[in-house]
Amino acid sequence: MPIRWNVPQHASARGRLDEALTAGRGAVVLGPDGCGKSTLARLAAGDFGRRHPGTRIRWVTGTPTERAVPFGAFSHLVQIADIGKPAALLRAARASLDGSDQGDLLLVVDDAHDLDVLSATLVYQLALAGAARMIVTGRAESSPEAIAALWADGLLRRVDIEAPGGGDTPAEVDAFLAELPAGARSVLDYLAVAEPLSLADLSALTGADAIGDAADRGAVETRTRGGASNDPVVYTAHPLFAERARAALGGDGARQRRTELVRLLSQHPPGHLSDRLRLAALALDSESPQPTAEVVAASQQALRLGDLALGERLARSALERSGGLAARLALAHALAWQGRGREADVVLGGLDPAALTEAALMDWALLRAANQFWMLSEPERATAFLRTTRQRVSDAGARTTLDALSATFAMNAGNVGHAVKVAGEVLAAPGADDQAVAWAASAAALCAARQGRFDDVEPLAQRALSAEHPGLLRFTIGLGQTTALLMAGRLDAARELAQQFTDFAELQQPGRAIGEVLLAHVLLADGEFARAAALLGPAAATLERTGYSWGPLSLTLLATALAQQGDIAAAGKALGRAESRHGTKSALFAPELGVARAWRLASMRDS
């Protein structure tokens, strides 16, 4: 028989939500599953729309399956440019949501605890910019960091509600599912492995009558979300339905449902990048694998979006099936960017460089040299490897790119003069590609700041930023810019710039931690030692597990911040960790290490 979950009215919470929408930018409604958050949001949004008829109301709903895909929940609302900078991707996504000529936007984000990192980041940025009124629902204890920051940073009002009588239990849901007819149950089974599904696709799998029966029995809901398509989509009607249906399916049953879904969806390949990644992820755990070239392409796109875990899964699957160079490079990139240099080196070592074309040799050699220098802490070996590779290539553009990486190596090794010379030659070369320009200009910008040539920093920084290149070079550029501003006494400007690296433009690690190091560096210069230490503690814990030069720097700055506060024991411990990790690859920061030692001695009243 049909089931209707007892949804309380929450009159008090409704009043606070209405007030937050009228007087402010909106609210975050928090509570356990099944307590009526979604109903409350739907009623409040409907009433607001009736009172303000020019308002565009758009819905985004997080689900466990879409959480595994970048921008999964927003695929119907935002366009994603195929570019390689997470911050630029977020700006493009915000711009595609703007539509300021179409009236004010009320964005309802339901089950925000099930958003992927980029979707959660976009929600935060929209709230920070005041670009939309918002109603966000979710569970406080399991929300992504960016969602928790909505109320922690005071951007949206927090409204807590409780479920009377403890809410619905898994046992009650299991009993309900067991009584569903086979057709209605099959609808839930497909949604358990991919939610939502379009009404058209789900009808092709189960039949329209089964969906209608499931809806009549309170198991699913058909919604029109707005945005790029008004085609209806189907969701489960309760958060526990998909979870319990997935548990009942078991591994083999879920795999069979994915296989059937992949075969259907592959007949009309999706155009949106998030949907293509969703299909690629589904196919991984099915009996209908995609062609390896498509899997590699999906892996590369996931990496450009900053989803290293998904990029790794896809690349590993492609490599196991093909052993090809493209899959090998994608997997090595994913591993290296996560700081897993030894694993990346094993992957890169599994081929014969003598059998590679010159273009393939370059792709392989650049990644292997960078991995050797930073992740394996073998800078001498990496530099020698670059020289050997340069002797093997004949193309002038390829040699320029190798020189650009060698300039970056020289800078990190503290050989600033040589780095400036080589970087200048690269930037003057007519055949320098984006990768070469990004490496050379970022190194030149930071070197200029360290040498006191402050007027040179910004033009070099802008040239580096104009070159599309994935990875972490934007932080090298940022350090050059903030250093120049600090040395010029422009503390407020330095803080404003550094803050941009921590305002959830960088949610994936290690980018988040490096952004916090940049901000802490400015806070130290401004005498805010406690705030700097609070940022540097967790950042250093993240970065010292990787091979990045930011690891020793974060520990060095932490030691200084602690010593400035008179915490001698903690400063000594941080300094010891910094010294043990300092070496050629972080020699550029030897002056900071000397300053940390001096402050520790000063805190001990020791000359």
From TrEMBL:
Q: This chain belongs to which protein, by name?
A: Tetratricopeptide repeat protein
SUPFAM superfamilies xrefs: P-loop containing nucleoside triphosphate hydrolases
Q: Which InterPro entries match?
A: AAA+_ATPase, P-loop_NTPase, TPR-like_helical_dom_sf
Q: Which domain of life is it from?
A: Bacteria
All residue ranges annotated as the AAA+ ATPase domain in the record: 23-162
